[in-house]
Every structure is written in structure tokens, then in C-alpha cells.
Design a protein that fits this description.
By secondary structure, the protein is of the alpha+beta class. It is built from 5 helices and 10 strands; from the N terminus they run H-E-E-H-H-E-E-H-E-H-E-E-E-E-E. The strands form 2 sheets. Strands 3, 4, 5, 6, 7, 8, 9 and 10 form an 8-stranded mixed sheet that branches. The protein has a two-stranded antiparallel ribbon with strand order 1-2. Helix 2 packs antiparallel against helix 3 (187-216).
Length: 338
């Protein structure tokens, strides 16, 4: 139809472009400015525009068909994917339900354990509070006794210091007298006299030292003990300190003695006189030089980093363990009561 219409317009234009012969013999040129020519021109312009629009429409139609086909393929793939997703979702739902059941069982078990632990902790807390209240009352009472003993000890030490100062003055007087007598060539007689007085002074000093030692030791059972709670020393220094006091490091003879002494101890670890210097694992009492009559290990000795000295410590009950001899610990001295 488009071609027919174009042919019609072309013939019309040709017809209008042919010269017209007038009666007087003159020719009349075609009038292109006439209404028909103008209409034809406008129609042609519209036809060109329409032709371009038709081409675009055909292009759009082709693209629409292509898009329609792709959409159909996409729907087919989507239906297939949806089926797979549905199966996966069902499987995952089953897994989640199974895991949820397991979690519920686990939560129930944990809640049961938590309830039991809570009851146990509550019971332990009550027992601990009762024990601490008892210990606090006991410590308060013992502290009052200790304070009284310390005050008495301070008074006795002051008295001893006064006696010692007096003895020192006597020694100075004796020394001056000796110097005078020596100047008079009668030194031998006065030297003997001075020696006698010096012996008496030494006996007095020894008696003072004995008094101090008696004050330092506390009778517990059949023995007297000096418990060092504040000053920590290594094993050798602790041993020397006890010897200077006229005793020796604690040498436990039974679990009863160990537990009885343990009730008086405030810290965690204390040195004993037991060691295995000569041969690893063969423990000797430093006091007797023989194998100890009593050993009660808190944990088996392992000689870790050369541990040759034995301590006592509190776990469930008081027991022994080997430790490095250079370690600084509290210690206990003992001696037989007079």
C-alpha cells in the first residue's frame, strides 16, 4: 500500500509539472505553489517520518519477541530452580529441627547441671561462711592472747636489756680495775679474779639468752616450737636461726603432731629439717642424720630444678613436698620442753 501511494503521488507530481498550452499559443508553467503541490510535499514528509517509525516499530517488535522468548526460558529455569530450592529448603528444615531437638536436650542437661552446681555452691558457701566465722572468732581470741604474750615478752626483754646494761657496766669497771692492778705489777692475781668475774658475766648472759629462748618458744603437746610467720628465709638460714635459738628445724614424727602444729600456723608453707642432699630420693633428717621416722607427701617429690629440701604445706590436710633450698619460706623451730 505504501508503494501504491508513492506511485500515485509521483504521477500526480509529473502531471502537475507538465507545461499547459494556452489558446493564444502561450505555455503556462506548472504552478508548484498550488495547494496540491504543497499537500503532496507535506504528505511526502509525513511519509518519510512514518516510514522511519514503521522501521522502529518493526525493530521494537523483533526485540519484543526476543525478550518474550528469553522471558519464557527464564520462567522455565526459574521453575526448575524453585523445585531445587524447595527440596533444599525441606532438607535444611529437617536438619534445623534435628539440631533444635539436640540443643533443647543439651540446654535441659545444662540447666540440670547448673541447678546441682548452684545447690552445691550454696552449700559450700554456707559451710565456708561457718568455717570462716569460727576461724575469725578463734583468730580474734588468739590475737588477744598473742598481744598479751607480746606485751609480757616486751617487758621481759626490757628487763633483760637492763640487766645486760648493768653487767656491761660491771665489765667496764672490772676492766679498769685490771688495768690499774696491772700497772702495779700485780696482774696475775687480778687477772684470775677478772677471769672469774668474766665467767660469771658469761653465765649471766647465757641465762639471759636462755630466758629469751624460753619466751620465744611455745609449748604445744610434748614439744616447744618457735613459729616464724613474718620473716622468710632459705633453708640454710632457717636452720642456722633455729640452732642459734637452741633448737633445730621442725622434724615431724607423726601425722597427729603435724596436724596439731598445723592448727597454729597462719601461712601456707614452712621448712622442715628433711633433705636429700647426698642422694636424690633418699631423704634424711638433718637433726638425727638418719632416715625420718615419718613422711607424708602432699604430692610426690619430683626434684624439679634440683629440689632437695622438704617443706610442709596445707592441701586437704598438712603434708610434705620437695622445694628448692634457696626458696624463701617461713619456718618452724622445735626443741624438747624442759
Amino acid at each position: 500500500m505504501q508503494n501504491i501511494f508513492l506511485g500515485f503521488l509521483l504521477s500526480l507530481i509529473l502531471q502537475r509539472s507538465t507545461a499547459t498550452i494556452l489558446p493564444d499559443g502561450e505555455t503556462k508553467e506548472p504552478d508548484c505553489s498550488s495547494y496540491i503541490c504543497e499537500s503532496v510535499r507535506m504528505i511526502l514528509e509525513h511519509m518519510v517520518v512514518m516510514n522511519e517509525r514503521i522501521k522502529k516499530l518493526e525493530s521494537y517488535t523483533s526485540e519484543f519477541e526476543k525478550f518474550k522468548k528469553e522471558l519464557s526460558d527464564l520462567k522455565i529455569n526459574q521453575n526448575s530452580n524453585n523445585e531445587n530450592l524447595k527440596i533444599q529448603l525441606e532438607n535444611r528444615t529437617t536438619e534445623v529441627l534435628t539440631e533444635n531437638t539436640k540443643v533443647k536436650e543439651m540446654v535441659y542437661s545444662l540447666q540440670t547441671d547448673f541447678t546441682l552446681q548452684k545447690e552445691n555452691l550454696k552449700s559450700l558457701a554456707e559451710r565456708t561462711n561457718e568455717r570462716y566465722e569460727s576461724l575469725d572468732n578463734k583468730i580474734t581470741a588468739e590475737q588477744a592472747v598473742k598481744t598479751t604474750e607480746i606485751n609480757k615478752l616486751s617487758m621481759r626483754i626490757d628487763a633483760v636489756d637492763t640487766q645486760f646494761a648493768g653487767q656491761k657496766e660491771n665489765i667496764d669497771i672490772i676492766q679498769k680495775e685490771m688495768n690499774k692492778k696491772l700497772n702495779k705489777n700485780d696482774g696475775l692475781h687480778y687477772l684470775e679474779d677478772l677471769t672469774t668475774k668474766q665467767v660469771n658475766v658469761e653465765k649471766a648472759i647465757q641465762k639471759i639468752n636462755e630466758t629469751i629462748r624460753n619466751v620465744a618458744f611455745k609449748k604445744i603437746g610434748s614439744k616447744a616450737y618457735y613459729i616464724e610467720e613474718t620473716q622468710e628465709r632459705n633453708w640454710n638460714d632457717s636452720r642456722a636461726f633455729c640452732l642459734d635459738l637452741g633448737g633445730h628445724l621442725f622434724s615431724p614424727q607423726s601425722q597427729l603432731e603435724l596436724d596439731t602444729l598445723g592448727k597454729e600456723l597462719k601461712n601456707e608453707l614452712y621448712w622442715t629439717d628433711i633433705q636429700d642432699f647426698s642422694k636424690e630420693g633418699e631423704f634424711i633428717s638433718d637433726t638425727t642424720g638418719r632416715k625420718p621416722k615419718f613422711l607424708s607427701w602432699r604430692q610426690n617429690p619430683d626434684d624439679w630444678n634440683g629440689e632437695d629440701c622438704v617443706e610442709i604445706g596445707l592441701s586437704r590436710s598438712w603434708g610434705m613436698n620437695d622445694n628448692g633450698c634457696s626458696t624463701l619460706l617461713n619456718f618452724v623451730c622445735e626443741r624438747q620442753t624442759l
